[in-house]
Amino acid sequence: MTMTAGLRERKKAATRQALNEAAVRLAIEHGLDNVTVEAIAEAANVSRRTFSNYFADKEEAVLYTDEVRRRRLHELVAARPPAEPAWAALCGAAGQLIAENDEDPDHSAQIRLLRRHPSLLGRMAAGSVESERVLAGLVVDRIPASERPPAEDGRPPLDPDLDARLRARTLAAALESALRIATLQWLDDPGLSLPRTLHHLLAAAADPWH
User: Fold this and answer.
1) How far is CA 201 from CA 64, 150, 181, 195, 207, in A?
2) Which phi and psi angles does 144 have, rounded to 5°?
3) Lowest-confidence range among 46-55, 102-111, 135-144?
C-alpha cells in the first residue's frame, strides 16, 4: 500500500509539473491572454478535466513554480538550528534557497512573464503576504522577549506576545521584499550575481536606520 501510494503521489507531482511547464511555455510563446486552459492541457497530454483537478485556472498553473519555491523556503526556515535568532534563520534559509535555484532559467522566464502581466503580479503579491504569515509563525519563538519601557506619553508597552508576533511579521516581510527586489534587479542586470545581490540587501536590512 505504501509503495502504491508513493507511486500515485509521484505521478500526480509529475502531472502538476508538466502542466506548469506547458502553461509557462505557451504563455511565453503566445502571451498569457492568448493561451487557453484547453491548450495547456493538450500540451501536457492530459484532458481538460485533469487540468481542473490540479489548478483552478491558467494563472494558477503559471504560478505553481513560485508556490513550490515558497514552500521550500518554509521548509528551510523550519530546519534551521533551534538556537539561531529569527533574522539569521530567515537569511540563512533564503541563502540556501537561492543556492539551490541559482540562475534557474525556468524561474527567470517566469519572472519576466510576470512583469508583463499585472494580474499575475497581483496574485504573486498575495502569495507573498501569505508567505509572510507562514514565515512569521515559523520564527516567532525565536524572537527574544521585549523589555521596552513604557512610551513617553505614559502608555504601557505592547503585550509581549503581540510584540513578538509583530516583530516576526516585520522580519518576514523584510525577507520577502529582499527576495523580490534581488530577483527583479538580477533580471534587469543579468551580469549581477543573484546570491550576492540578495546578501547585500539582507545585510542592508539588518543595519539600523539612521
Assistant:
1) 26, 32, 8, 10, 10
2) -70, 155
3) 102-111
All three cell numbers of 163: 510584540
C-alpha distance from residue 28 to each of 25, 111, 112, 114, 116 (Å)? 5, 11, 9, 10, 10
Beta-carbon contacts of 195 under 8 Å, excluding residues fewer than 6 positions away, are 95, 98, 99, 102
Give the amino acid at 140. V
C-alpha cell read off for 93: 534559509
Q: How far apart are CA 135 and CA 87, in angstroms?
A: 11
pLDDT tens profile 139-158: 999 998 765 555 666 677 77
For cell 538580477, name the residue: 186
CA 33 from centre of chain: 24
- pTM of structure: 0.83
Could you tell me the sign of the dihedral formed by the alpha carbons of 58, 48, 19, 11, in that order? positive
